[in-house]
Amino acid sequence: MTLRLSSAGESHGPALVAILSGLPAGLTLDRAAIDADLKRRQEGYGRSPRQQIEQDRVEVLAGLRQGRTLGTPLALVVRNVDHKNWTWGMSPWPPEGEPSGKGTKPVTLPRPGHADLAGVLKYGHADVRDALERASARHTAVHVAAGSVAKALLASIGITVTGSVVDEEALRANVDAARAERDTVGGIVEVRAAGVPPGLGSYATKEDRLDARLAFALMGIQAVKGVEIGDGFALAGLRGSEAHDEIRTDRRRDTNHAGGIEAGISNGEEIVVRAAMKPLPTLMKPLASVDLQTGEAATALVERSDVAAVEALAVVAEAAVAWELAVAAKEKFGGDAVGDFIAAHAAYIERIAWA
Ligand code: EPS
After folding, report:
1. Distance in angstroms (rounded) separating the CA atoms of residues 231 and 257
2. Mean pLDDT across the stretch 312-328?
3. For ligand 1, is residue 50 a contact (CB within 6 Å)?
4. Number of helices and strands in the chain (H, E)
């Protein structure tokens, strides 16, 4: 069965939810490990006061019994603690009683760079909040929980996935400078996956290509505007003799310009991908916009905002890459029980005599 993930949830709604199907039975999940990833996502430098409100924790509603997967859909929930301040404004049903709390007045000042303008035009909303709530990166929390599950599956065959900020020191200096000027910044993150055998993904069709799938997964994360695999854009400026990774007699490489993927297939070297994040669009000194109610020139919505969420992106990108690699590994090795998955991987490693 193909590994599949779907999610739902608004930033200030009651909860974020994800359903993961196609997981093999018998996989042991560690609640503390999932919650630790959720905490990592919340901790980055430059995060907003919202992170003091939220204490993200995973709840499991289905698919798990006594810490082991059942081979049935796994239903994950991360609650929005802040919803208590939005019970009227974000009530799923027509709210009862007098308006109170946040989100009671329509937002009509779209922020350049956010979903606000295109979202209301596309869906016919009168209130920008109807678009921004789902477009918010808040829902990456439940994708991090799903990524944690994927990492548990990958660990069973010796694959580890790690995300980090490229140049953490420069980021921190940027954040400090931007905060002082009440501005926001972006940055670059890198994800590395070790222990990936040759043979995940395929050149057979473009949908099968592992690099295409990783790029899709990373571009699907809020605020990501660029993705590169291995040396990516820099390869365009090199000679072929410099750009390609020579093959030794043991079939390994001394260099890894390709980022562990050739022709859409993992080649057994470390997978290395990067994602570039634009600066966050909610600004304390807002840019020019239009009041959608009056049609008059105005400045964009001002709300509390993070200065940066680049460290959070490192965790979210790690989760996205882990999920895609788990999908590709499940596709290659199959297995209704996790033991079948592990045995198929071992048999394959033996066939290709991969050390
Ligand atoms: C976000 C705006 C901020 C962020 C939020 C994403 O939320 P609020 O509008 O409540 O201040 O804190 O991210 C999270 C809550 C999170 O957990 O990552 C946005 O507009 O995308």
Report:
1. 5
2. 98
3. yes
4. 10, 14
